[in-house]
What we know:
Number of strands: 38
Number of helices: 4
Helix content: under 10%
CATH architecture of the largest domain: 7 Propeller
CATH superfamily of the largest domain: Regulator of chromosome condensation 1/beta-lactamase-inhibitor protein II
Amino acid sequence: MAKIRRSLAPARTILATVALSAALALTAATPASAAALVTPDSGPATGGTTVSLAAAALGFSQVAQGENTGYGLDGDGHVYSWGDNGGDEFGDGGAAASSIPVRVLQGAIPNGVAITQIAAGWQSGYGLGSDGKVYAWGTNSSGQLGDGTTTTRTQPVAIDVSGVAAGVRFTHLAASAMDAYAIASDGTIYAWGYGADGELGNGSTANSDSPVVVSAAGMPAGVVFSQVAAGGLMAFGIGTDGHVYSWGWNGTGSLGDGSTANSDVPVPLSTGAIGAGVTIAQVAAGQEGGYALGSDGHVYDWGSNLFGDLGDGSTTDSSVPVQVVAGQIPAGVSITAIGAGSASGYGIGSDDHVYAWGIGGNGQLGNGASSDSSTPVVAAAGAVPAGVHLETISGGYHSVIALGTDDRVYGWGDNNSGDTGDGTTTQRDTPVLGANADITSVTFGGVAGTDVVDPPGVTTVVTGAHSAGVVAVVVSGSINGGAAAGAATSVTLPGAFTFTATLAPTGVVLPWWLLAVGCAAIAIGAALVSQGRRPRRSTSR
């Protein structure tokens, strides 16, 4: 591990990047409800209802990029991976690298448990289950899978929770080169993996193959963590006071505390250029520095600036936060979400454009060039359709993936291992379509819908005739890599559609249960009449 540390600091060799994407740092998303994916969610039993299906029904809700491997979470809580698989980070049992998404195996994930959030390490993947537990797969040389061993795993295993407080559920995930972090429901951060530089934040420099508690000694009383992000050999947490706390390796000022001394417990981020009254809404991590989104809509960053990573117009390292300059960001446009690559920063503007700065030799900035930039440049639209914008960004070694509002993945940069998931290994300097879902059929309670139209974003289908009642909707298709066809898959949305009965001849639609009650009443009345009996009529005087 010392060899890795030396190569990171003096030689500035960029190894893995494990930057938490914009949305993942804010909330642990859950799979969309069935009702939210199907509109309208009811129609007559005679059929003929045109139904719209949100792309998340078979598309992606999250992305995360490891060193050279991408991950996507679909609407049914399954994880897909693509790119390099040299460390078994696919979680598919040990197959070869693939530029087309492959599905992570069930492994130790219990039946009925869906993955609600993903994170990517150097050569390891992580999923947060709907049961509040963490599952991991891939390389485990430093205990970064947290399962109590250092054994590489080709499919998901559950982390060892013997040292976790009883009743605690995990709510957020992040991963760095050889570490992982999880925020618990009580605001405590647990960490596991490599610890030689203080990466675990527990006051020690020892590795740990199971979760340990990150110290809160340097934080004000009553303040707990609300967000965590991790980079090369350091981590950042946002406290409930809106301030950032850092720990781990600090050779280039990557902790932002005004020094270059490592810290094995969290230390407060220096104010630097952050204005009075500005709180931090989101934090992201590069290989040797951090990025923070201020409540004023500006981005602040610190650490290595070898390639213009800090976006301040210079290539001078900074151990305190500096403000990213406007560059090509238009006046009046604020940044609403951030992401980070190994030595590059990304901001999504209020105008829905992506702005990037830092290393760009492999097209990482997405602006059609292959050069670095110390100020923000606007990324090209590339293959992103009109009306669709990118909403989360996650960077890897020299590649980037992003999730569009159409629930499709777009990627750019070095693609030597199929990192972008576009079905090729061709370098891309503007966004191309990566992992995406192609819906080919939809059934409602086992009855096939007709006239399936599957443009990017929203799919439409017409219901067939079915008896009245609540039914499951099954969406079938394939998960593709760009235009390259992938494996068949399907998603079941239980109770997503209700067929309602229709009374002839008025065409008034009644709930099936009300119709059943009415029919029963009619039957009883008919039986009484057939017996020569009539209901007694009340009299009054």
